[in-house]
Every structure is written in structure tokens, then in C-alpha cells.
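Follow-up to my post from last week.
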Amino acid sequence: MRIEDGELVLEPGEVLIRPGIFTRQPGDCMPHLLGRKCQDCGDISFPPYRHCLLCGSEKETVEVVLGNGAVLLGYTVARQVMPGFFPGYILAKVRMKDDPTLVVTAQLVDVKEEDVEVGMDLVMVPRVIRELPNGEKVVSYCFRPADPARVSAAQGGESP
Amino acid sequence: MREVAIIGAGMIPFGKFPDYPAARMGGDAAEMALRQAGIRATDIEATFLGNTGGNAPNLAQRVNGEIGITGIPAFNHENACASSSAAFRQAVLAVGHGMHDYVLVVGVENMTCHIASGRLPSGPLVLPHGANLEADNGMMMPAVFALLGSQHMAEYGTTREQFARVAVKNHAHSAHNPYAQYRKVFTLEEILNSRMVCDPLTLLQCCPIGDGAAAVVVTTAANARRHTTKPVYVAASVLTSGKYKASVQGAVQIEACARAARECYEAAGIGPEDVDVVELHDCFSIHELVAYEDLGFCPKGEGGRFIDEGLSDYGGKVVVNPSGGLLCKGHPIGATGVAQLVEIVWQLQGLCGARQVPGAKVGLTHNGGGFGPGNEPGAMSITILKV
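User reply:
Got it. Predicted complex:
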């Protein structure tokens, strides 16, 4: 995968974890995730839900472009992994800065385990996270440290 | 609602039985429960069964067929690891509201058959459902609790040794339980040094894959006294689901557990300080430590101190998992909820031998099933039993 003018472009043999999950945000060099927002209480869901999980509004949620900022709540290193995943990946629970109730679980990349600290600021980056039995590589949303001093060599894809 | 009681409880010893069909396991457990109840299979008016759906369609009917019951209502429940707790809760409602007088509740799972058929991966890495986006990102069941543990360590200073002490305790308990899949005592060092699965969870802090079945016979309190001198009464049984966005707003906890526990204590008129014995859903050691707090046995953030001081062990405030828990007794998914009830029934009847909690009068089961966004459980069941 590569990023061209804020748009995620897949290489041959790569597939998205879900279709339509990324979008281009004009003026930003990085792609963004698409979530949904409640028309009544403003709560944001990702993965997207058709109705609000917080207030139960009868109105359908509407599409919203998420900001890329997040904070690390907790993490674990997966030593024993499912087929197709790369052993030793770091799995993170993060709170998106857009919405205090929006917690996302994804892989933490471009960082050494010893540099990971609960509470650190993160940014979303797309990366290859696994290989399917047919050889296709799956591109998903991941997070990396916002502080360049904590970023180590890119893993699983190109660093923008 | 009529007061409801359990008059018979039975289970097969848990283990790995690839050639022991689920219906047969369920039938064998049901026969033991009927024998303790002292009633005939044909006295049963309805069967409520929990299974995660993989072993066979109409499994309740198949279990009935194994013990000679036909032509009655039979209900099959799927609620992940809380499947048979859901079945029990429906059975309590059916008897309590006068629909039936004698019902059979069965929990059963043959996981090794699931693995042989490719429905589950082998090893300790049971995945959340494939339709779950988080699972596709590498989330595994141990990771759900490893992440919760990481949060608990950061927020409250809990240590990996404190999580491991839960496993030390439950492995020690299992040595006295002939129904447990594993009955081996381990030191803290052995627990900490076993193979790392998901930091800080080592292998001996993760429940095993296994097969098993358990059953109880439920009737009214009025009927119960005609069949046994030791009826066990259902003080309250609550089943709820996660709110998914609630946990992240407050303390590090399983919100659905804290909420279900509050509801259950209130309905039973019993507080956490009254509970003598608990069968707690220790699928991973971290879950037990966090649940001490969510169930109200200690204040938020003090789960580590609770295990350090031995307050969840014999001689402490409440004995948690005398059976060895899911970590050692085993966790054949659909069987677990009813197996927890069976242990509490036997504890309250004083039948548990070397693992007996002295003078136990009030017992609680805590059974979670699956998880959703924000790592909240899909299902959460709390039941309080008393004599």
C-alpha cells in the first residue's frame, strides 16, 4: 500500500480489512477512518453502527470522518497468534480524541515494546496486518506513536 | 413469582473426549441430576439447554432422547460462554411464573469435536466471532483480558504477580476436585514462567479447551421440600448484556458485571458481605481479579490487595472458585454456567469433601459470554443461591 495525496492506494495482492473503511480528507496528507455520528447526542461509533449505542436515538446515524488522534489505554503483546498474523504484534486499546466514549482496538506499529507507555498519544496509520491463506495481504487501520522520538523502523508497510 | 429451588445437580468430570457425543454427555449429566433429585425422567415437563450451537441442532431434544424423554417443550440457548446460564435463567422464570413445575437445565459442549471439524482453532486461542472487525485485527479472547489487565496495572498499580496469584489459588483448589480437567498445583514462579500467550497472561493463567456437561433439576420451593432435606433456593438470577460504551467513561471495570451484580443483590436482598462461596468466570486470571471489584467484594482498584491478603481463599472473606474455576476445572463453553451452579449447589449442601467451604449458606455464580465493542461482555449472568 502507499499513500498518494492523502489517499490510500493498494498494491496488487492487497485487500482492505473492510471495504469503504478509509477516506481522503481534503488538506490532509493522511487517510482517515469513516465512522458514524448520532444526530441527537453526537456520539460517534467505529466500527460504524446504524443506531446510536449511547442514547438509542431512533434517527439513523450519519457518516463522519474521524480525526486520526488517539490515546493509548492499554496494550498487550501477542506471543502466540492466529495463522496469517505476524507473531509478536502489539494489540492496543485506544481512546479516539474525537469522542471520549470511542474506544478502538487495533495493532500498534512502528514502536519498540519498551517504548510503549499507557497514556501516550497516537496517530492512525494504515498497515498490512496479516496474510490470508490465498496469499492476499490485509491492510487495516493501526496506530503509531505521535511523538517521532518514540517511532522506530516501520513494520508491515511503508511509513509516510 | 413462586420461589424456585434446585433439587438435583450432576456433572461429568471435564476432560477431552473426542469420541463422547455431546448428547450423550448431556444425558449422563442429566441422569445424575435426576438421581439426586429422586424423580423420574418422565416427571420433567420441559428442558432448557445451553450450547454454543456447534455440536448438533435440537441438542436439548437429543439429550432428552438419551434419557427417554419425548414430547415436551425443549429449548436450545446460545449465549457464548454464558449459554447455559441463559438456559437456567429461562428455566427459573418458567417455574417461577407457573408455566412448569419440574424442568431440566443442561449445559453441554464438546469443544474437541469443534476443533476436529475446523469450527475452532486448536490451542488456547479461541477467537471472537469472525464477523467481528476487532477479531480481524488480531483480537483474541486472551487479549481481551490482557488489555483490561494492562489498563488495571496502569490505573491502580496492579502487578503481574497479583494476576498470577489468582491462578496459584485456583490450581491449588483444583487438586481437591475430582470433576476438574486439570488437578495440578503450581508455584507462583511456575505460573509466571509458563509460556507467554498475551502479556501479562501466561499459559497457566488461561483456561483450557475441554469437553463436559452439567445439569440441574429446577422446581418450586414448595415441591422441593417433598423431595429433599437439602433444597437450594434461587435467591435471584440476573442476565444482562453489555452497554458497550459505558465502561470507557468510568473506572477500569466490566460495567455489565457491576450492573448485573447490583441488580442481583437487590433482588435477592443479599449483599456481597453475605456471600460465602463464588464460582467466578476466571477464563483468564485477570478476569477474576477485576471481578472481585465489580462484584463488590472489595473497593475499585483493590483486587490486587484482595488476592495478596488471601481474602478470596479459605479463611478469607469469600472463597472464590473452590472447584478450581474455569482455569482448572475446565471451560467447555456451553457447560460452564450450569457447572458453576452444580458446584455451588453441592457446596451449599455440604457435599464437597476436601474442598468444602465450611458453613456455606449463600453462594454466587458469575458467568460472562462473548464480548462486543469496547470489550464489554455480550452476556453477563449473576445468580445467587442460598439454603
